[in-house]
Amino acid sequence: MQAHASGRRSGDQFCVYVHDFYVIPKLVEGESYTPERGGLDNLTKKYIHENLFYRFVHIRSDDSDVVVRKLEDQIKSGVLGLTPVLNGTTPQRRS
Predict the structure, then answer these.
(1) Which domain holds residue 73?
(2) 6 and 19 in contact (C-beta within 8 Å)?
(3) pLDDT at 4
């Protein structure tokens, strides 16, 4: 989680996605930017801190890995009402 919160794009796929999907479009729309070392990482970090949050659930059981993977798949597919933008999946069509 610390890597995600750092905003550093190097080696952190989450930060790369946030940068590509949210930070760059704001810059393209005309938000001012002066190139500087670490500047894009700082903008990514700022976006993460001001706009994103996370939640977690502690699951302790003999099959917790199975339970967590199933819950993750449900969340990604939108079954719980929202589909994650950055790592969601396309819900399977029912026949």
Answers:
(1) 57-95
(2) no
(3) 60
Neighbours of 93 (CB within 10 A): 5
Domain match, 42 and 69 both = no
> b/e string for 28-59 if b means 16 or more Cβ within 10 A?
eeeeeeeeeeeebbebbbebbeeeeeeeeeee
38 vs 5, higher pLDDT? 38
Express each pLDDT in 51-66 by its tens digit. Answer: 988 878 888 999 999 9
Q: Could you give the number of structural domains in the chain?
A: 2
What pLDDT is attached to residue 27? 92
Indicate if 13 and 35 belong to the same structural domain. Answer: yes
Q: How far apart are CA 23 and CA 43, in angstroms?
A: 7
